[in-house]
Amino acid sequence: MENTTYIALSRIDTLTRALDVAASNLANANTDGFKATRQIFSDYLVHQKGTHEVPGGREEAFTQDKATYQDHLQGALRQTGNLTDFAINGEGYFSVRTAQGVRLTRNGQFHRRVDGTIVDGAGNPLLDRQGQNIVVARQDDIVSVASDGTMSTEDGRIANIGIVTVDNLNTLQPEGSYLLKPTTRTHAVAQTEIRQRMLESSNVNSINETTRMVEIQRDYDLNFQLVQTESTRYMNAIDKITAEPSS
């Protein structure tokens, strides 16, 4: 197998991964708080051996999937009218307590459990600034959540929603469609802006992501055709070389 085929196969391998990433993004276009995943491609250069290469042919560039990262651009905010729906306008994340530990999220779709605990869709409790579960007494009703995270009922303030962040957002590890695992120390956001009765939508642009999937598929097909063409050329060459000479 010649290097042309190897180079095309390296491109096919990265395009397969790119198609998976784009498909995941598109599938979560309507998931509140979802952040799109992006890829970083790079060339893997291989120096050819020998001293008789053609000009410009001393290096071969293979394609490699260098890394993936999350696009933390804020999604659009939309009105819901629900008292326990919260959106963060600006930087920061809600903290929730899961069975695996504290996780961060931009999905502010919470509800009140029977015992008064404010939880997300998976039942993970929302945490306050001290890292404690936010619990509303059964006899109280949530009246408002101020922009600084102060939660109040008819009897006054009961909690302050904790909004935290990390120094390097690229260190956050996605878990599921909306949770993020912090791998470095978190700290409170200096200035918070929480909007009650609103949610942050996914930051995936469905039209752009669909267009990207079509482009990836087209690129994949072209490289696959190249591999097939090269394979046919090799077989024809072998047949000619091994053919018995005519008498």
Q: How does this model look, in words?
A:
With 247 residues, the protein is α+β, with helices and mostly antiparallel strands. The protein is built from two helices and 17 strands. It has helices spanning 3-27, 206-242, and strands at 37-47, 59-70, 77-79, 86-88, 93-98, 101-105, 111-112, 118-119, 142-145, 150-153, 156-160, 163-165, 173-175, 179-181, 187-188, 194-196, 198-200. Strands 13-14-6-5-12-15 form a six-stranded antiparallel beta sheet, with no helix packed on it. Strand 5 and strand 6 (101-105) form a beta hairpin. The longest helix is centred in the last third of the chain and has 37 residues, at 206-242. The radius of gyration is 27 Å and the shape is elongated. The model has no long low-confidence stretch (mean pLDDT 85).
Largest sheet: 6 strands, antiparallel
Number of strands: 17
Q: How do the strands of the widest beta sheet line up side by side?
A: 13-14-6-5-12-15
Q: Write the element-wise H/E pattern from the N-terminal end onward.
A: HEEEEEEEEEEEEEEEEEH
- Mean pLDDT, to the nearest integer, reads 85
C-alpha Rg (nearest Å) = 27 Å
Query: What amount of the residues lies in strands?
Result: 25-35%
Distance between the termini: 32 Å
Which stretches are low in confidence, meaning pLDDT under 50 for 5 or more residues running? none
Structural class: alpha+beta
Shape: elongated
Helix content: 25-40%
How many alpha or pi helices?
2
